[in-house]
Design a protein that fits this description.
The complex is a heterodimer of chains A (176) and B (199).
Chain A: H1 10-21, E1 23-28, H2 35-43, E2 48-51, H3 55-67, E3 71-77, H4 85-94, E4 99-103, H5 116-128, E5 132-136, H6 142-156, E6 160-164, H7 166-169
Parallel strand pairs in A: 1-2, 1-3, 3-4, 4-6, 5-6
Chain B: H1 11-19, E1 26-29, H2 33-39, E2 46-48, H3 56-66, E3 72-77, H4 78-82, H5 85-94, E4 99-105, E5 108-109, E6 115-116, H6 125-131, E7 136-140, H7 143-153, E8 160-165, H8 180-192, H9 194-197
Parallel strand pairs in B: 1-2, 1-3, 3-4, 4-8, 7-8
Antiparallel strand pairs in B: 5-6
The chains are: A alpha/beta (176), B alpha/beta (199).
């Protein structure tokens, strides 16, 4: 079966992982890859979905979320990872948990050269800023990777970034 | 441009007046002078930021959403808030009723050599807050005006923004409590109780 014909379930798998983890606040800068997940979070009355102007706001916000006794997650595209760097210093110094879900651009089959500088350095940059980085390229493993990442960050107080590969998210075929 | 009113407010007198009414509300400070000012009035319900310039307002938003029954006050400086202009829009769109942001506005980057900030050049933070959808927004220049505006900070009809124009008076760094993990843990233990803070 071609990948295009397979039902896409990983956004729902992430939402299910959020429910199991007890996520109550979801901060995001929109990405096409997260469209369905963002919709699900807005529709859930037990969650507060907060649209940001820039990703670094979400890092600061989720520090406050944890201070107040709730759990949250930050959704972004790889181009937003660089915007977070200085704020990640707060996370590291205070040992705040932080669950970041990054949909990747600039890797598998990318057509836009402007996406490559950030996409190719996302894992390195987040790693150097103190985050655990877990890359997932298999759609069937996205949900479990998010759940495992959540367990790790909320138990250890170390930031965890789950990079959802462009192979999972899909790319535009410009040969057509 | 119209002539600016002269301010007579001292930053520590102003913050003292605000915190005298804090009750059980939660305080987040921005880095720099506001952190030191609040340190002279230390309280376990205070979370001090020593870094992450631009973070204070958004830390306040996450906290306000997590604790809807508690009033959350963010106290920070004009330089810090100018780095977080997007946060005005995000908070204005979210409209948390229990969040108030107070900027101690000396129109200077006083930590880094007293360079003027854009508020000295006519940029109006209260105007930005109003245009972003804050429920209340204002600027005060003296203690009488500040005292008159204090009830609105604690009324839970926010989000509220207040710019307190303060003089350029500087004070020594008067807080030694700067281990971020310790500050976070103290805050959570006090707010949530030991079991919930470390479960």
């Amino acid at each position: 079966m071609k990948p295009a014909e397979k039902a896409i379930t990983w956004p729902q798998d992430i939402y299910d992982a959020f429910k199991k983890l007890g996520i109550r606040q979801v901060a995001y800068v929109p990405d096409a890859g997260h469209t369905q997940l963002i919709k699900s979070c807005h529709a859930d009355k037990s969650m507060k979905a907060v649209s940001l102007t820039t990703e670094e706001e979400g890092v600061a916000m989720l520090a406050g979320t944890w201070l107040g006794g709730e759990r949250g997650a930050l959704l972004m595209q790889s181009s937003g990872a660089g915007n977070c760097i200085n704020m990640l210093g707060i996370i590291q110094e205070c040992r705040f948990p932080l669950l970041m879900l990054v949909t990747m651009r600039g890797e598998w089959g990318e057509f836009n050269p402007w996406q490559l500088p950030m996409g190719q350095s996302t894992a390195d940059i987040l790693g150097r800023a103190g985050s655990v980085v877990q890359h997932v390229d298999d759609a069937e493993r996205v949900g479990e990777t998010v759940f495992a990442g959540g367990q790790m960050t909320f138990s250890t107080g170390r930031p965890v970034a789950v990079l959802i590969g462009q192979r999972v998210v899909g790319f535009k075929d410009w040969s057509k | 441009m119209a002539k600016k009113p002269k301010t007579s407010l001292d930053r520590r007198v102003a913050l003292g007046a605000i915190l005298a009414r804090r009750g059980d509300s939660l305080l987040v400070t921005g880095l720099g002078s506001t952190c030191y000012d609040a340190g002279t009035l230390d309280h376990p319900n205070t979370f001090y930021l020593w870094g992450g310039m631009g973070a204070a307002a958004m830390v306040g938003l996450g906290l306000a959403l997590a604790q809807p029954k508690r009033q959350v006050i963010v106290a920070t400086g004009d330089g810090e808030m100018l780095m977080a202009l997007g946060a005005f829009a995000t908070i204005g769109a979210q409209r948390p009723r229990n969040l108030a942001i107070v900027v101690m506005d000396n129109e200077l980057y006083s930590e880094t050599g007293m360079q003027p900030t854009h508020t000295s050049r006519g940029v109006d933070l209260a105007g930005i807050a109003k245009a972003s959808g804050f429920a209340r927004s204002g600027t005060v220049y003296n203690l009488k005006q500040l005292n008159a505006s204090l009830p609105s900070l604690y009324m839970s009809q926010g989000p509220v923004f207040l710019a307190a124009k303060v003089t350029s008076q500087r004070y020594p760094m008067s807080i030694r409590y700067r281990d971020g993990t310790a500050i976070k843990n103290r805050f959570r233990e006090n707010l949530l109780g030991f079991d919930k803070a470390y479960y």
